[in-house]
Each structure stands twice: as C-alpha cells, then as structure tokens.
Amino acid sequence: MEKIIPIVIVSVLLIIILIGIIGFFLFFNIGLFEILGVEYESWTSIFIFFGLSFAADAVVNIAVTFCKFRYYHSTGRTVKKRHAFILRILLDFAAIHTIDEMMTSVHFSFLSKIGFVLVISLIDASISSAKRRVEKARDE
After folding, report:
1. Interior angle at CA 52, CA 42 and CA 40, nearest 5
2. Which residues, other chains included, contact 115 with Cβ-Cβ below 8 Å and sequence gap of 6+?
3. With 0-12 CB in 10 A as exposed, 13-18 as middle and 19+ as buried, what is 76?
4. First-to-last CA distance in the chain?
C-alpha cells in the first residue's frame, strides 16, 4: 500500500501535466487559426490537421537534416543557419499547402498559410536557440 500511493500520485500529476500541455497547444493553435482567419468544420478536422502536420513536420526535419549534411558542408555557419531557416519555411509552406489541398474541411487563404508558417517557424527558431543557449551554459 505504501508503494501504490506514490505511484498513483505521480501518475495523476503526469496526466494533469500532459492534459495541460495538450490544452495549451490546442488553444494556442485554435487562437492562431482565429486570428489568421482559417476556416474549419469541426474539432475532428482540427485534430486530423494537427496529426498530418506533425507527420509533415517529421518529413521536413528529415529533409532539412539531409540538406545540411549534403549541401551545407562547405558553407559558413551563418550562411548555413539562414539557408536552413529559408529551406524550412519553404518546406513548411509546401507541407501546409499540401495538407490544405488534401483536407476539404480546413481552408487556409494564401496569406493565412504564409502567416501560419512564419509564426510556427519563428517559434521553432526561438525554441531551438533557447536550447542552444542552455546547452552552451551547461558546457561552460
């Protein structure tokens, strides 16, 4: 009984944290959709959109990593970062456009696609730069 109570408490806390994280991402993206004027039919279409966008993001990450190893080997560090950022934006735009064309229940205008991709790319860049700063501080 003494071992069960801490396990249950930790499990409940992990579930609450997981629900909080999912809720934050969901309401952040829904709010972003409202600001950009994205039209959607139901919550199910939003969940399908997020699932497809996670899969497309994995493909984009693989493509950017491949390009870093093949193309950026001979370029400088700042040029590599700029090219990778631009390539990521272009591939993310292509992924969002493809998902928008496949799904009839979610409709992006051209400007909302650009805005969505730029916001997501800037958030991704700021998170990755914060991770680099933390790792650099740990190394010192």
Report:
1. 20
2. 36
3. exposed
4. 45
Question: Which 3 state secondary structure label does DSSP give 3?
Answer: coil
The pLDDT tens digits for 101-131 are 888 888 888 988 898 888 888 888 888 777 6
Residue 16's pLDDT is what?
92
- Rounded Cα gap, residues 8 and 104, in angstroms: 43
Decide: helix, strand or coil at residue 106.
strand
Q: Residue ranges per domain, the chain? A: 1-36, 41-137
Q: Which amino acid is at 38?
A: V
Burial class (CB in 10 A: 0-12, 13-18, 19+), 47: exposed
